[in-house]
Amino acid sequence: MASTIALPFALVLLSISLCVSALSLNYYDQTCPKAESVVKNIVRKAMRNDRTVPSALLRMHFHDCFIRGCDASVLLNSTTKNTAEKDGPPNISLHAFYVIDLVKKQVEALCPGVVSCADILALAARDAVSLSGGPTWNVPKGRKDGRVSIATDTRQLPAPTFNISQLQQSFSQRGLSMDDLVALSGGHTLGFSHCSSFQNRIHNFDTTNDVDPSVQPSFAASLRRVCPVHNKVKNAGATMDSSATTFDNMYYKLLVQGKSLFSSDRALLTSTRTKALVSKFASSQQEFEAAFVESMIKMSSIPGGQEVRLDCRVVN
Protein backbone atom coordinates (compact mmCIF):
# COMPACT_ATOMS: atom_id res chain seq x y z
CA MET A 1 0.00 0.00 0.00
CA ALA A 2 2.78 2.43 0.94
CA SER A 3 4.44 2.06 -2.45
CA THR A 4 1.25 3.00 -4.33
CA ILE A 5 0.99 6.21 -2.29
CA ALA A 6 4.70 6.99 -2.56
CA LEU A 7 4.89 6.65 -6.34
CA PRO A 8 2.71 9.65 -7.34
CA PHE A 9 4.41 11.77 -4.68
CA ALA A 10 7.82 10.74 -6.04
CA LEU A 11 6.67 11.63 -9.56
CA VAL A 12 5.51 15.08 -8.38
CA LEU A 13 8.89 15.67 -6.72
CA LEU A 14 10.70 14.50 -9.85
CA SER A 15 8.62 16.75 -12.11
CA ILE A 16 9.26 19.77 -9.85
CA SER A 17 13.01 19.09 -9.73
CA LEU A 18 13.07 18.66 -13.51
CA CYS A 19 11.09 21.87 -13.95
CA VAL A 20 13.38 23.87 -11.64
CA SER A 21 16.30 22.71 -13.77
CA ALA A 22 14.32 23.43 -16.99
CA LEU A 23 13.68 26.97 -15.79
CA SER A 24 16.54 29.42 -15.97
CA LEU A 25 17.58 32.54 -14.07
CA ASN A 26 18.80 34.19 -17.29
CA TYR A 27 15.99 32.94 -19.55
CA TYR A 28 15.20 36.40 -20.99
CA ASP A 29 18.69 37.89 -20.90
CA GLN A 30 18.99 37.80 -24.70
CA THR A 31 15.34 37.82 -25.81
CA CYS A 32 13.79 40.40 -23.44
CA PRO A 33 16.39 41.89 -21.06
CA LYS A 34 14.08 44.64 -19.76
CA ALA A 35 11.21 42.30 -18.80
CA GLU A 36 11.95 42.21 -15.07
CA SER A 37 12.35 45.97 -14.73
CA VAL A 38 9.02 46.50 -16.53
CA VAL A 39 7.28 44.19 -14.03
CA LYS A 40 8.85 45.89 -11.03
CA ASN A 41 8.04 49.42 -12.19
CA ILE A 42 4.39 48.61 -12.88
CA VAL A 43 3.93 46.76 -9.57
CA ARG A 44 5.53 49.69 -7.72
CA LYS A 45 3.25 52.19 -9.44
CA ALA A 46 0.13 50.10 -8.78
CA MET A 47 1.09 49.83 -5.10
CA ARG A 48 1.21 53.61 -4.78
CA ASN A 49 -2.44 53.76 -5.86
CA ASP A 50 -3.66 50.69 -3.97
CA ARG A 51 -1.94 49.17 -0.92
CA THR A 52 -3.80 45.87 -1.40
CA VAL A 53 -2.01 45.12 -4.68
CA PRO A 54 0.91 43.14 -3.14
CA SER A 55 -1.32 40.73 -1.21
CA ALA A 56 -3.53 40.34 -4.30
CA LEU A 57 -0.60 39.42 -6.56
CA LEU A 58 0.91 37.01 -4.04
CA ARG A 59 -2.42 35.25 -3.53
CA MET A 60 -3.07 35.17 -7.29
CA HIS A 61 0.28 33.42 -7.88
CA PHE A 62 -0.36 30.91 -5.09
CA HIS A 63 -3.85 30.11 -6.42
CA ASP A 64 -2.42 29.75 -9.93
CA CYS A 65 0.33 27.31 -8.95
CA PHE A 66 -1.97 25.08 -6.90
CA ILE A 67 -4.24 24.40 -9.90
CA ARG A 68 -2.55 22.74 -12.93
CA GLY A 69 0.84 24.16 -11.93
CA CYS A 70 2.15 27.71 -12.47
CA ASP A 71 0.62 28.16 -15.92
CA ALA A 72 -1.32 31.44 -15.57
CA SER A 73 -4.61 29.50 -15.89
CA VAL A 74 -5.97 31.78 -13.13
CA LEU A 75 -5.72 34.74 -15.53
CA LEU A 76 -7.95 33.28 -18.26
CA ASN A 77 -11.42 34.78 -18.65
CA SER A 78 -14.57 32.69 -18.66
CA THR A 79 -16.24 32.14 -22.02
CA THR A 80 -19.83 31.36 -23.05
CA LYS A 81 -18.90 27.65 -22.97
CA ASN A 82 -16.64 27.57 -19.91
CA THR A 83 -16.47 29.09 -16.42
CA ALA A 84 -12.80 29.73 -15.68
CA GLU A 85 -10.80 29.45 -12.43
CA LYS A 86 -11.02 33.17 -11.70
CA ASP A 87 -14.80 32.76 -11.34
CA GLY A 88 -14.57 29.76 -9.00
CA PRO A 89 -15.79 30.52 -5.42
CA PRO A 90 -12.34 30.77 -3.75
CA ASN A 91 -11.15 33.15 -6.49
CA ILE A 92 -14.08 35.59 -6.65
CA SER A 93 -12.17 37.95 -4.33
CA LEU A 94 -8.95 37.87 -6.39
CA HIS A 95 -8.16 41.27 -7.88
CA ALA A 96 -5.39 43.36 -9.49
CA PHE A 97 -5.51 41.39 -12.76
CA TYR A 98 -5.05 44.77 -14.46
CA VAL A 99 -1.47 44.89 -13.14
CA ILE A 100 -0.60 41.74 -15.12
CA ASP A 101 -2.40 43.17 -18.18
CA LEU A 102 -0.36 46.39 -17.99
CA VAL A 103 2.92 44.46 -17.74
CA LYS A 104 1.96 42.18 -20.64
CA LYS A 105 1.06 45.13 -22.85
CA GLN A 106 4.41 46.81 -22.22
CA VAL A 107 6.43 43.63 -22.55
CA GLU A 108 4.66 42.71 -25.81
CA ALA A 109 5.58 46.12 -27.22
CA LEU A 110 9.26 45.44 -26.35
CA CYS A 111 9.50 41.72 -27.15
CA PRO A 112 6.43 40.31 -28.94
CA GLY A 113 5.46 36.73 -28.12
CA VAL A 114 8.41 36.08 -25.79
CA VAL A 115 7.48 36.51 -22.11
CA SER A 116 4.83 34.17 -20.70
CA CYS A 117 1.99 35.38 -18.48
CA ALA A 118 3.01 32.70 -15.96
CA ASP A 119 6.48 34.25 -15.68
CA ILE A 120 5.00 37.74 -15.36
CA LEU A 121 2.84 36.54 -12.45
CA ALA A 122 5.80 34.82 -10.73
CA LEU A 123 7.91 38.00 -11.08
CA ALA A 124 5.05 40.23 -9.91
CA ALA A 125 4.58 38.08 -6.78
CA ARG A 126 8.31 38.38 -6.01
CA ASP A 127 8.19 42.17 -6.45
CA ALA A 128 5.02 42.39 -4.34
CA VAL A 129 6.97 40.83 -1.46
CA SER A 130 10.20 42.80 -1.86
CA LEU A 131 8.45 46.16 -2.38
CA SER A 132 6.48 45.51 0.84
CA GLY A 133 9.69 45.30 2.86
CA GLY A 134 10.26 41.57 2.42
CA PRO A 135 13.14 39.65 0.82
CA THR A 136 13.94 39.59 -2.88
CA TRP A 137 15.22 36.62 -4.87
CA ASN A 138 16.16 35.57 -8.39
CA VAL A 139 13.10 34.01 -10.03
CA PRO A 140 13.80 31.07 -12.34
CA LYS A 141 11.99 31.78 -15.63
CA GLY A 142 10.77 29.92 -18.70
CA ARG A 143 7.26 28.88 -17.58
CA LYS A 144 4.64 28.32 -20.25
CA ASP A 145 0.98 29.37 -20.21
CA GLY A 146 -1.83 26.82 -19.99
CA ARG A 147 -4.85 26.50 -22.25
CA VAL A 148 -7.28 25.02 -19.68
CA SER A 149 -9.00 26.86 -16.84
CA ILE A 150 -12.02 25.31 -15.08
CA ALA A 151 -13.84 26.91 -12.14
CA THR A 152 -14.61 23.60 -10.40
CA ASP A 153 -10.86 22.86 -10.17
CA THR A 154 -10.65 25.59 -7.51
CA ARG A 155 -12.16 23.06 -5.09
CA GLN A 156 -8.61 21.68 -4.92
CA LEU A 157 -7.30 24.85 -3.25
CA PRO A 158 -6.51 24.50 0.47
CA ALA A 159 -9.44 25.99 2.40
CA PRO A 160 -9.19 28.32 5.43
CA THR A 161 -11.10 25.66 7.41
CA PHE A 162 -8.53 22.89 6.77
CA ASN A 163 -6.91 20.98 9.63
CA ILE A 164 -3.24 19.97 9.62
CA SER A 165 -3.73 16.60 7.91
CA GLN A 166 -5.80 18.18 5.12
CA LEU A 167 -3.15 20.87 4.67
CA GLN A 168 -0.37 18.28 4.60
CA GLN A 169 -2.20 16.27 1.94
CA SER A 170 -2.89 19.35 -0.20
CA PHE A 171 0.74 20.46 -0.12
CA SER A 172 2.29 17.01 -0.53
CA GLN A 173 0.18 16.38 -3.66
CA ARG A 174 2.09 19.32 -5.16
CA GLY A 175 5.51 18.14 -3.98
CA LEU A 176 5.58 20.61 -1.08
CA SER A 177 6.60 19.68 2.47
CA MET A 178 5.30 20.60 5.93
CA ASP A 179 8.20 23.08 6.13
CA ASP A 180 6.97 24.68 2.89
CA LEU A 181 3.45 24.83 4.35
CA VAL A 182 4.60 26.81 7.39
CA ALA A 183 6.87 29.14 5.39
CA LEU A 184 4.29 29.86 2.66
CA SER A 185 1.55 30.45 5.25
CA GLY A 186 3.66 33.46 6.23
CA GLY A 187 2.34 35.10 3.07
CA HIS A 188 -0.70 35.82 5.27
CA THR A 189 1.38 38.67 6.68
CA LEU A 190 -0.06 40.67 3.77
CA GLY A 191 -3.71 41.31 3.16
CA PHE A 192 -7.27 41.15 4.33
CA SER A 193 -9.90 38.45 4.83
CA HIS A 194 -13.67 38.63 4.52
CA CYS A 195 -15.74 37.41 7.48
CA SER A 196 -16.85 34.26 5.66
CA SER A 197 -13.34 32.77 5.84
CA PHE A 198 -13.17 32.81 9.65
CA GLN A 199 -16.87 32.93 10.62
CA ASN A 200 -16.62 29.27 11.71
CA ARG A 201 -14.23 30.24 14.54
CA ILE A 202 -16.27 33.08 16.08
CA HIS A 203 -19.89 31.85 15.79
CA ASN A 204 -21.32 28.37 16.49
CA PHE A 205 -17.84 26.85 16.71
CA ASP A 206 -19.05 23.53 18.10
CA THR A 207 -21.79 22.08 20.33
CA THR A 208 -19.98 23.30 23.47
CA ASN A 209 -18.40 26.61 22.42
CA ASP A 210 -19.78 29.51 20.41
CA VAL A 211 -16.20 30.74 19.90
CA ASP A 212 -13.11 28.62 19.19
CA PRO A 213 -11.43 28.46 22.65
CA SER A 214 -8.00 28.72 21.01
CA VAL A 215 -8.77 32.30 19.87
CA GLN A 216 -7.53 34.93 22.32
CA PRO A 217 -10.74 36.28 23.98
CA SER A 218 -10.37 40.03 23.34
CA PHE A 219 -9.28 39.29 19.75
CA ALA A 220 -12.36 37.06 19.30
CA ALA A 221 -14.58 39.82 20.71
CA SER A 222 -13.17 42.37 18.23
CA LEU A 223 -13.78 39.96 15.33
CA ARG A 224 -17.36 39.33 16.47
CA ARG A 225 -18.00 43.08 16.48
CA VAL A 226 -16.80 43.40 12.89
CA CYS A 227 -18.46 40.15 11.78
CA PRO A 228 -21.80 39.66 13.61
CA VAL A 229 -23.59 36.34 13.15
CA HIS A 230 -25.99 37.81 10.55
CA ASN A 231 -23.46 40.05 8.85
CA LYS A 232 -25.00 42.37 6.23
CA VAL A 233 -21.86 44.32 5.30
CA LYS A 234 -20.58 42.88 2.04
CA ASN A 235 -16.89 43.74 2.48
CA ALA A 236 -16.65 43.32 6.25
CA GLY A 237 -13.58 41.50 7.51
CA ALA A 238 -10.19 41.88 9.15
CA THR A 239 -6.56 42.36 8.15
CA MET A 240 -4.47 39.19 8.22
CA ASP A 241 -2.11 40.72 10.77
CA SER A 242 -1.57 44.08 12.46
CA SER A 243 0.96 45.21 9.80
CA ALA A 244 -1.01 44.06 6.76
CA THR A 245 0.91 46.09 4.16
CA THR A 246 4.39 45.16 5.48
CA PHE A 247 5.99 41.81 4.76
CA ASP A 248 7.31 40.73 8.16
CA ASN A 249 7.03 37.90 10.71
CA MET A 250 4.12 39.47 12.63
CA TYR A 251 1.79 36.71 11.37
CA TYR A 252 3.74 34.12 13.39
CA LYS A 253 3.98 36.33 16.49
CA LEU A 254 0.20 36.78 16.49
CA LEU A 255 -0.39 33.09 15.73
CA VAL A 256 1.51 32.11 18.90
CA GLN A 257 -0.66 34.59 20.87
CA GLY A 258 -3.93 33.04 19.65
CA LYS A 259 -4.62 35.92 17.25
CA SER A 260 -4.86 34.17 13.90
CA LEU A 261 -7.88 34.39 11.61
CA PHE A 262 -8.18 31.01 9.91
CA SER A 263 -8.59 27.50 11.28
CA SER A 264 -5.80 26.60 8.83
CA ASP A 265 -3.50 29.15 10.53
CA ARG A 266 -4.28 27.76 13.98
CA ALA A 267 -3.73 24.23 12.58
CA LEU A 268 0.01 24.99 12.29
CA LEU A 269 0.18 24.79 16.10
CA THR A 270 -1.33 21.28 16.23
CA SER A 271 1.70 19.31 14.98
CA THR A 272 5.06 19.21 16.77
CA ARG A 273 7.10 19.99 13.65
CA THR A 274 4.96 22.84 12.36
CA LYS A 275 4.56 24.36 15.83
CA ALA A 276 8.36 24.41 16.27
CA LEU A 277 8.73 26.21 12.92
CA VAL A 278 6.05 28.76 13.85
CA SER A 279 8.00 29.54 17.04
CA LYS A 280 11.26 29.78 15.10
CA PHE A 281 9.80 32.20 12.56
CA ALA A 282 8.06 34.22 15.29
CA SER A 283 11.42 34.84 16.95
CA SER A 284 13.46 35.42 13.76
CA GLN A 285 12.38 37.35 10.69
CA GLN A 286 15.67 36.36 9.04
CA GLU A 287 14.91 32.63 9.44
CA PHE A 288 11.39 33.18 8.10
CA GLU A 289 12.55 35.14 5.05
CA ALA A 290 15.19 32.54 4.12
CA ALA A 291 12.62 29.72 4.38
CA PHE A 292 9.96 31.71 2.52
CA VAL A 293 12.27 32.38 -0.43
CA GLU A 294 13.26 28.72 -0.68
CA SER A 295 9.63 27.56 -0.55
CA MET A 296 8.43 30.23 -3.01
CA ILE A 297 11.01 29.15 -5.59
CA LYS A 298 9.91 25.55 -5.11
CA MET A 299 6.19 26.33 -5.35
CA SER A 300 6.55 28.71 -8.30
CA SER A 301 8.36 25.97 -10.23
CA ILE A 302 5.44 23.51 -10.25
CA PRO A 303 5.21 22.77 -13.99
CA GLY A 304 2.28 23.35 -16.34
CA GLY A 305 1.40 25.08 -19.62
CA GLN A 306 2.52 24.82 -23.24
CA GLU A 307 2.40 28.22 -24.95
CA VAL A 308 3.24 31.91 -24.55
CA ARG A 309 -0.07 33.76 -24.58
CA LEU A 310 -0.27 37.07 -26.45
CA ASP A 311 -3.12 38.21 -24.19
CA CYS A 312 -3.08 36.88 -20.62
CA ARG A 313 -6.89 36.63 -20.49
CA VAL A 314 -7.32 34.54 -23.68
CA VAL A 315 -5.62 31.41 -25.09
CA ASN A 316 -3.80 31.84 -28.41
UniProtKB/TrEMBL annotation:
Localisation: Secreted
Binding site for heme b: H188
Assigned keywords, A-Z: Calcium, Disulfide bond, Glycoprotein, Heme, Hydrogen peroxide, Iron, Metal-binding, Oxidoreductase, Peroxidase, Secreted, Signal
Required cofactor(s): Ca(2+); heme b
Sequence positions that bind substrate: P158
Transmembrane residue ranges: none
Alphabetical list of PROSITE patterns matching this protein: PEROXIDASE_1, PEROXIDASE_4
Xref: SUPFAM superfamilies: Heme-dependent peroxidases
Residues at which Ca(2+) 2 binds: T189, D241, D248
Domain Plant heme peroxidase family profile, chain residue ranges per copy: 22-316
Xref: InterPro entries: Haem_peroxidase, Haem_peroxidase_sf, Peroxidase_pln, Peroxidases_heam-ligand_BS, Secretory_peroxidase
Site (Transition state stabilizer) location in chain: R59
Main location: secreted
Disulfide pairings: C32-C111, C65-C70, C117-C312, C195-C227
Record text on cofactor binding: Binds 2 calcium ions per subunit. Binds 1 heme b (iron(II)-protoporphyrin IX) group per subunit.
EC identifiers of the protein: 1.11.1.7
Annotated residues for binding of Ca(2+) 1: D64, G69, D71, S73, E85
Signal peptide residue numbers: 1-22
Active site, UniProt feature: H63 (proton acceptor)
Full protein name: Peroxidase
